[in-house]
């Protein structure tokens, strides 16, 4: 496990509680010692006892030596540099799993794309994990589900079998694009929710933004080749709900500080951990523009970050300044005015769960 922050340490605990021997890589030797000797990570998971099967080292080389699977949980903007350091020591056939939910700012690439390019490995050796996964809740062993995605179903299943225990269950799919973009985009909507929460708006406002945010997420992901039902599953709707409603969410917290009037630089200073949504806003909007996808909520988040929009003005606009009534979904102006648009995402989510995280068969 490369990265010993809250999520990396929590996922290491998931794997160890599932029966694996886990070696953490921590940059700071004192943190590595604490994990190994005291079975604690007091900086990121205070009060949590870590399994005996977890150890840690400050040496990346020692951490990955002999590993059958390498999990990556580092800030998305530092991934490429870490992969360059990892590449000479990665053994042939080792699987690589991304736990990160961001896009690279300078290239707009998803994390799996950065992994494939930098390590020069076959996509079948790469997997990504996503879902409603607030680290501290899972570390406290509250029941949670996630989805493991890979272009290779065999790889996804292999990783999912490792990431299972009495409180954590992993489903699988092969829609890497949808799974990754779900994890990225929900962060941006969570920042918007935090902003309106900080301003003092109530539940109606937040529910409206969550619902319209899911539309933006789905339209964006599908335009890039994702399956729409993935965004109605754990990596989309599930993660969106958890991230938007919880004070444990770093992106929600960052947005709330913005809504309370703090400037961007001050928010970054106050955050002890990375809020991936703040770094992903600009590259996501560039990708959306290239595909002709409208993302008004995300646009307004960027305006707040840039200081060109007063946080209290984000909610009245919600998704458009156009007074002309619009269809709830992009195809509603042309067809399907039967009122089924609200039900379909939840039906797809239920179907996905019934089918073990896979797309339902169609007649």
From TrEMBL:
What SUPFAM superfamilies does the entry give?
6-phosphogluconate dehydrogenase C-terminal domain-like (SSF48179), NAD(P)-binding Rossmann-fold domains (SSF51735)
- Binding of sn-glycerol 3-phosphate occurs at 101, 131, 186, 239, 249-251
The record's annotation in PROSITE patterns points to: NAD_G3PDH
InterPro entries according to UniProt: 6-PGluconate_DH-like_C_sf (IPR008927), 6PGD_dom2 (IPR013328), G3P_DH_NAD-dep (IPR006168), G3P_DH_NAD-dep_C (IPR006109), G3P_DH_NAD-dep_N (IPR011128), NAD(P)-bd_dom_sf (IPR036291)
**Region annotation Disordered: where it falls in the sequence:** 308-363
Please name the catalytic residues of this protein.
186
Where in or outside the cell? Cytoplasm
Which keywords fit this entry according to its UniProt record?
Cytoplasm, Lipid biosynthesis, Lipid metabolism, NAD, NADP, Nucleotide-binding, Oxidoreductase, Phospholipid biosynthesis, Phospholipid metabolism
- Provide the residue positions that the database annotates as binding NADPH: 6-7, 27-28, 44, 101, 135, 250, 276
Occurrences of domain Glycerol-3-phosphate dehydrogenase NAD-dependent C-terminal (ranges): 175-314
Q: Which Pfam families match?
A: NAD_Gly3P_dh_C, NAD_Gly3P_dh_N
Spell out the Basic and acidic residues composition-biased ranges: 326-336
One example of a Gene Ontology biological process annotation: glycerol-3-phosphate biosynthetic process
Instruction: Please give an example of a GO cellular component term from this record.
Output: cytosol
Q: Which reaction does it catalyse?
A: sn-glycerol 3-phosphate + NADP(+) = dihydroxyacetone phosphate + NADPH + H(+); sn-glycerol 3-phosphate + NAD(+) = dihydroxyacetone phosphate + NADH + H(+)
**Could you confirm whether the keyword Nucleotide-binding appears in this record?**
yes
**Pathway(s) per entry:** Membrane lipid metabolism; glycerophospholipid metabolism
Could you give a GO molecular-function term held by this entry?
NAD binding
Q: What is its EC number?
A: 1.1.1.94
Chain sites annotated for binding NAD(+): 3-8, 135, 250
Q: Which residues form the Glycerol-3-phosphate dehydrogenase NAD-dependent N-terminal domain?
A: 1-155
The UniProt similarity line reads:
Belongs to the NAD-dependent glycerol-3-phosphate dehydrogenase family.
- Function per UniProt: Catalyzes the reduction of the glycolytic intermediate dihydroxyacetone phosphate (DHAP) to sn-glycerol 3-phosphate (G3P), the key precursor for phospholipid synthesis.
According to UniProt, the name of this protein is Glycerol-3-phosphate dehydrogenase [NAD(P)+]
What does the record give as the organism's lineage?
Bacteria, Bacillati, Actinomycetota, Actinomycetes, Micrococcales
């Amino acid at each position: 496990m490369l990265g010993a922050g809250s999520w990396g340490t929590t996922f290491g605990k998931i794997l160890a509680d599932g029966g694996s021997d886990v070696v953490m890589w921590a940059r700071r030797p004192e943190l590595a010692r604490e994990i190994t000797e005291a079975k604690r990570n007091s900086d990121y998971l205070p009060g949590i006892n870590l399994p005996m099967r977890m150890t840690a080292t400050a040496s990346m080389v020692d951490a990955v030596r002999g590993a059958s699977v390498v999990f990556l949980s580092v800030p998305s903007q530092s991934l490429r540099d870490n992969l360059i350091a990892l590449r000479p020591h990665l053994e042939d056939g080792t699987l690589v799993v991304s736990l990160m939910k961001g896009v690279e700012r300078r290239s707009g690439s998803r994390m799996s794309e950065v992994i494939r390019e930098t390590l020069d490995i076959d996509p079948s050796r790469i997997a990504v994990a996503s879902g409603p996964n607030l680290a501290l809740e899972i570390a406290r062993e509250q029941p949670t589900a996630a989805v493991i995605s890979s272009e290779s179903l065999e790889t996804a299943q292999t990783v999912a079998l490792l990431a299972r225990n009495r409180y954590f269950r992993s489903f699988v799919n092969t829609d890497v694009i949808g799974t990754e973009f779900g994890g990225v985009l929900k962060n941006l909507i969570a920042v918007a929710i935090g902003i309106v929460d900080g301003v003092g708006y109530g539940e109606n406002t937040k529910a409206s933004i969550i619902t319209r945010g899911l539309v933006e997420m789905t339209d964006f992901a599908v335009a890039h080749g994702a399956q729409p039902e993935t965004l109605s599953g754990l990596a989309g709707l599930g993660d969106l709900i958890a991230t938007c409603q919880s004070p444990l969410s770093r992106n929600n917290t960052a947005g709330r500080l913005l809504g309370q009037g703090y400037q961007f630089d001050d928010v970054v200073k106050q955050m002890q951990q990375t809020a991936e949504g703040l770094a992903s806003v600009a590259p996501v909007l560039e990708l959306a523009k290239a595909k002709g996808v409208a993302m008004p909520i995300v646009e307004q988040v960027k305006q707040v970050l840039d200081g060109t929009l007063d946080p209290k003005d984000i909610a009245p606009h919600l998704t458009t300044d156009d007074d002309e009534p619009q269809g709830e979904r992009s195809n509603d102006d042309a067809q399907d005015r039967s009122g089924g648009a609200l039900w379909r995402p939840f039906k797809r989510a239920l179907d996905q769960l019934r089918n073990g995280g896979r797309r339902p068969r169609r007649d």
